[in-house]
């Protein structure tokens, strides 16, 4: 088997270079399937969080954990995946990238890792903490 040199997915020609590197011929296809990691803590998040969003910022850490939220970087707490369609439109959220926006299920991604979305809030108790990796 020939050695495949490192390819960068940031390269705009990545797909073509990858096809050439693996010897993919015209008419053949390759499919990538990536895992959507599930929760490992066994917790089942609160199923109907509708009345809670206005209260989340003031809740203590233990309460957020019981609801199904998970800490990301010491500041940001991520929403359970199951809440994707329950987050009120226009609710202020922060992404793991640091970008802040108003929630809209039509424009925000529903990707999940460890059972949580890439979006959440910085609760009062976490403000002032230094984020970490």
Number of helices: 2
- Strand percentage lies at 15-25%
For the biggest sheet, the summary is:
6 strands, antiparallel
Number of strand segments: 6
What would you say this structure looks like, in words?
- The chain has 2 helices and 6 strands.
- It has about 130 residues and is α+β, with helices and mostly antiparallel strands.
- The chain has a domain at about 55-125.
- Strands 1, 2, 3, 4, 5 and 6 form a 6-stranded antiparallel β-sheet that branches.
- The two termini are about 40 Å apart.
- The model has no long low-confidence stretch (mean pLDDT about 90).
Short description:
With 133 residues, the protein is an alpha+beta fold. It is built from two helices and six strands, in the order H-H-E-E-E-E-E-E.
Essential attributes:
133 residues, 2 helices
Secondary structure layout plus pairing:
Layout: H1 14-22, H2 61-67, E1 70-71, E2 77-80, E3 92-95, E4 100-102, E5 112-113, E6 116-121
């Amino acid at each position: 088997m020939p050695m495949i040199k490192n390819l960068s997915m940031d390269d705009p020609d990545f797909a073509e270079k990858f096809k050439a590197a693996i010897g993919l011929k015209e008419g053949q296809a390759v499919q990538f399937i990536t895992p959507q990691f599930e929760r490992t803590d066994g917790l089942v998040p609160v199923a109907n969080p509708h009345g809670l969003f206005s209260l989340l910022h003031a809740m203590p850490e233990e309460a957020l954990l019981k609801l199904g939220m998970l800490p990301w970087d010491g500041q940001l707490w991520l929403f359970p995946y199951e809440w994707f369609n329950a987050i009120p439109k226009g609710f202020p959220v922060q992404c793991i990238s640091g970008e802040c926006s108003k929630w809209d299920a039509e424009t925000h991604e529903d990707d999940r890792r460890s059972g949580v979305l890439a979006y959440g809030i910085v609760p009062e108790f976490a403000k002032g903490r230094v984020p970490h990796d």
